[in-house]
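Regression check, calcium ion case 226:
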Amino acid sequence: MSKILIVEDEVKIARFVTLELQHEGYEVAVAHDGRTGLQMCESWQPDLLILDLMLPELSGIEVCRRLRQTSDIPIIMLTAKDDVSDKVMGLDMGADDYMTKPFAIEELLARIRVSLKKHRLDRAKETGARTVGKLHIEPASYSANYDGQSITLTKKEFDLLNYLWQHEGTAVTRDDLLSNVWGYEFAGDTNIVDVYIRYLRQKIDDKFTIKTIHTIRAVGYMFKYE
Ligand code: CA
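Current build output:
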């Protein structure tokens, strides 16, 4: 579940957006001034920030500028007026998107979904992290989980899953797997591949009643989420 921080001094708007976001299943926190908002970004580590431009203590522009020195969190700015120069300045300071008040909540929700998705894809490009359905892996930390439940994999199991997943939808031969996951010392001994495929299926497919690892007759295996 994504965490969204709303930094908005107009209590009624903050309350309304909070309720709508909670209804959509997001975890929400609110700050009513820029300084508190900036502090909460550090302490609460939200996945997305909805940032009003006109704020007490620190302006939205200033919050944005400071935040961008250390964080690439998606920021959607709220502007009270349809002022082009404010928007341009916000976008220059690193905001990803903006909305002019009053706005339709459906549009804000749509933009939140787009921003979160884009951020996930950008991050995946950097770290090799991948998600399909509820299955997620992060090569940087060798971690995998299904719907938030962590899956304990040995390094070899992880490497095997990762390699198959990199070739999603393509049949990979046992020899390919041996040389790329195990290295050459195991050349020829393809039984070990079948053994590890079995481990993966027990830990993922069987456990969560999904199908990810398919046997391709006379070839090898293929990762495809079903
Ligand atoms: Ca305001």
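Comparison notes: The helical segments are 11-23, 34-44, 60-67, 84-92, 105-127, 155-166, 174-182, 191-208. The chain has a mean pLDDT of 89. No diff flagged against the previous build.
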